[in-house]
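Q: What does the assembled structure look like for these inputs?
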Amino acid sequence: MSDDRRLDVLRAIVEDYVATQEPVGSRSLVERHHLGVSPATIRNDMVALEDEGYITQPHTSAGRIPTDKGYRMFVDRLATVKPLSPAERRAIETFLTGAVDVDDVVQRSVRVLAQLTNQVAIVQYPSLTRSTVRHIEVVALEGSRVLLVVITSSGRVEQRIVELVETPSDQLLSDLRARIGRATLGERLPEASLRLADMIETFDVNDRPVVTAIVTTLSQTFTNERSDERIAVGGAANLVRFGSDFDTAIRPVLEAIEEQVVLLKLLGEATSGLTVRIGAETGNDSLVGTAVVSTAYGADDQALATLGTVGPTRMDYPATMAAVSAVARYVGRSLADT
Amino acid sequence: MSDDRRLDVLRAIVEDYVATQEPVGSRSLVERHHLGVSPATIRNDMVALEDEGYITQPHTSAGRIPTDKGYRMFVDRLATVKPLSPAERRAIETFLTGAVDVDDVVQRSVRVLAQLTNQVAIVQYPSLTRSTVRHIEVVALEGSRVLLVVITSSGRVEQRIVELVETPSDQLLSDLRARIGRATLGERLPEASLRLADMIETFDVNDRPVVTAIVTTLSQTFTNERSDERIAVGGAANLVRFGSDFDTAIRPVLEAIEEQVVLLKLLGEATSGLTVRIGAETGNDSLVGTAVVSTAYGADDQALATLGTVGPTRMDYPATMAAVSAVARYVGRSLADT
DNA sequence: GACTGGCACTTGACCCAGGGGAGTGCCAAC
DNA sequence: GTTGGCACTCCCCTGGGTCAAGTGCCAGTC
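A:
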């Protein structure tokens, strides 16, 4: 028995099942793919594939459907890249150009990704801890309030208002501004935070209260976990495609995308490559039958955060993978411009 | 036949149907409410209520369910206010205190509202056009880039980066800063935008390119429709409660909450009072069986934006209405502090 | 005139059996 | 290794029959 053909059969089963959503039998398989052998032969291959755990039958007299292991094999060895159509490329481009700020980029990319893949799209906001400080501004407001603005290399702008106990002198502020700049410019945020902490003692004791208040607020902003966890979700309407059984198929996903923590886990570590996690590989037991396609994105060569889609395991992997990496590429480029 | 009792019957039907999700018959009605009459009498009342269009039967031999008109009557005349429990009050309070910025306030309130009502919660970000300018900052960045920061009375901070053709002098910038401040401080954003436009001609012709670039960007920021349309949605998992028929009950809502424009329409105009829109009153044909409870919220006495919930018409109106107005109150207070 | 008990009627929900069809596994033959 | 044939399995659909809930109506009572 030829090993090659057996893999061809697996590929055909995955493709057909993804297309029709129905168990695929030996007869329809030979009809739709020119395999050059009879249904009986295919059946032999099928039992072999089933023995190895790549496919399974919902019930005795039904066709076969791929198992998670089958999908994995498909993704790893059988899928051929499916380049985006020019129309799709153009869609991404027109969607993302015209974004005015980082918020906008994220919102738009989540929309376009959901639309391209017909799945639920997830985009993590550019990570703070992985960016560097591009600019810090300290602005006196009315009274003893001070506005702090941090601009990061990823174009993200964070601001905080600090209520001070006394109104600081202009001189102190400009001094502070200069020293903060010297200490943090170009540094990664976590390091910048450390540098700032060291800085407090270099100031006159009288100024300490003001300096401390400002510097610690900045530090907090730099290491603020919450903003590192920000996530945008889109395409919830595509949950329809998860199947008809609401309770087992749709509800868990709906619940997962409400929980930022779960979502972050799903997206996974921002490794640079495209990652596909199928079924149990998602690390979430309640998400049987769902798969996550994710990748890191970043300005330049630096990974800033992750984005991806979550959909049913019976998804069009080549198309989804192409869309995810294309959007990631464009988002990275778009952020570099901001 | 007593009109009073007939309304009592309607109230009982609404309450039972909301509680059980099943058509309610004359027998169970007299059992669960001490109406003091026999099922047969109730039946007579029921045909009257049905003739007037307040209730209907799914099929000939089933119990009655309220029509949209019935719910409306219930909300308008029959519902008794159901004050929040102390635990619920505390939940709102602890959820909203500790919010670091406006973004955070909105995110948290959408969560708490969804949790309290077990419905889909919608919170519109504080409107820009209805706020006034609290502070504007113009900061020179590296090269010929300039950072513009706008702080509004609602605590919202918008920022834009402008790429200029030439590097402006410090003197020009501080002049600009002063004049912009004078022209816009305390003004509503649309008016501030007009004032800025008038300002350009008061500058030296040589400075015009720089001034124009900065001022028009500010203007755009003030009148940016997109940010006026920003909305947070939460509690999508509660869609479960909309019923079991995915296509007719859940999908339309899912689609609606993906579309900002539709959402904004749903929330409706930011009138000051609590508004309940039932079925067709939502103005959206595909949302049969859903109702929207919304209200304006604001700092001080000024309406800034709207928030609310969308749920099935068979919802617990008194509880939902109480939760929505309570959250609105707290959000308003919380924004005033920021 | 309002209320009540009784009763026939309607109708969806549930259960069960039987036929049809798609697909399989196995086997003997090539 | 491949193929056609064939018996078998099991889901799906349909139809009929029962059941329970609830109604509408009517005659009688207060």
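The first helix of chain B runs from residue 3 to 20.
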